[in-house]
Description:
With 331 residues, the chain is of the alpha/beta class. The protein has two domains: 3-111 and 300-323, ornithine cyclodeaminase, domain 1 (2-Layer Sandwich); 117-295, NAD(P)-binding Rossmann-like Domain (Rossmann fold, 3-Layer(aba) Sandwich), CATH 3.40.50.720. Helix content is 35%, strand content 25%. It is built from twelve helices and 16 strands. It has helices spanning 8-14, 17-32, 79-83, 108-127, 142-154, 167-177, 188-192, 234-237, 247-253, 257-261, 274-278, 300-317; strands at 3-6, 36-37, 42-46, 51-61, 66-76, 90-95, 102-107, 134-138, 159-163, 182-185, 196-199, 218-221, 241-244, 270-273, 292-295, 321-323. The strands form two sheets. Strands 1, 2, 3, 4, 5, 6, 7 and 16 form an eight-stranded mixed sheet that branches. An eight-stranded parallel sheet has the order 10-9-8-11-12-15-13-14. A hairpin with a 6-residue loop joins strand 6 (90-95) and strand 7 (102-107). It is globular, with a radius of gyration of 19 Å.
Amino acid sequence: MKTLLLNRDDVGENARMEEVIVAVEEAFAAYQHGNVQMPAKSYIDLPEYNGDFRSMPAYMAADDWDAAGIKWVNVHTDNPETYDLPTVLGTMIYSDPRNAFPLALMDGTTLTRKRTGAAAAVATDHLAVADATSLGIVGAGVQSYTQLEAISVVRDIDTVVVADKRDDAVEAFVDRFGDEFDVRGGSIAEAAQCDVLSTVTPVESPIVSAEDVGDHTHINAMGADAPGKNELGEGIVANAKLVIDDYEQCTHSGEINVPWSRGLLSDEDLYGELGEIVTDEKPGRTPDDGVSVFDSTGLAIQDVAAAHVVYERANEKDNGTPFELVDTRLR
């Protein structure tokens, strides 16, 4: 019995977005039904290296499959300049819950991008207007690509406006998708007028104001990942239909953490968690809704769900490199 080594190309090829979206929605449902084990994300801070490590273990049981794994991920801000490495690196260990055998060791960086896009798509499917055709994206980094790839699965997107202070990043995005969509660079205000808006930036203070946003825009707030960081102005979150992925994570380090810490938001301002909506315990978009916001902090069960899709597809297609990580002769 061998472990499957799956590199970036293997993960990209086998993480079919349609299937990842379904699996991530199943993960939110399992979370709502209490069919997961997901300890809090743990951190190892390394200020001497301007970085940290984060471990994200989880187990989830869907209706007809279950899966377990752990993602080991970092943020080292000096990497690009000092080591010619990405700021964020991720490795996913995907294990068989029945016997703990490591079924696969895979690129967690690509996996993260795929599952993050899929989470936005799940939220968009339930919270955006049904006839949404335009998507605005603020931040043209690597996460922006899977936002469009995923959201275009659940809505018939034809117009895309991408905003970024880096002209080369906008140009690269337009070059990538220009043959598939009517895509152009624009201002943050232009992007925020679209039917759906995804914010995927590392900013520490708001860059989208309430005046920018359309009357019925659904916003996927994906960028905030630490206390003190947020992308949306207080006028947006104070008046929007607020949906979160996880209470503890969002109030601590999600989009709402800043107004929450200032006492501007409370439990009464939260509409609910996405798991409640995907399980039909609460309705998603209703005719009376104006602006809606999904606060996404990223859950370990999303990684496990996406890894399940990748492994099953790769195993079926004989992709990847099998290797003997565990000596099965020792019992």
